Amino acid sequence: MSNDEQDLLERCYFPSSISIAEEIPEGIKFEIKKIQDRQKLMIRQKSACDVSFNDQYVECNDFDAISIEKLCITLIRAFNCDCYIIMSKIKEVNVHLLGEMIEKSFFELNELGELNGLGFELSISFEYFNLKLDELLLYYNYLYPDNKIDHLIDL
Question: Each residue of 37-50: pLDDT tens digit?
Answer without folding.
Answer: 999 999 989 999 99
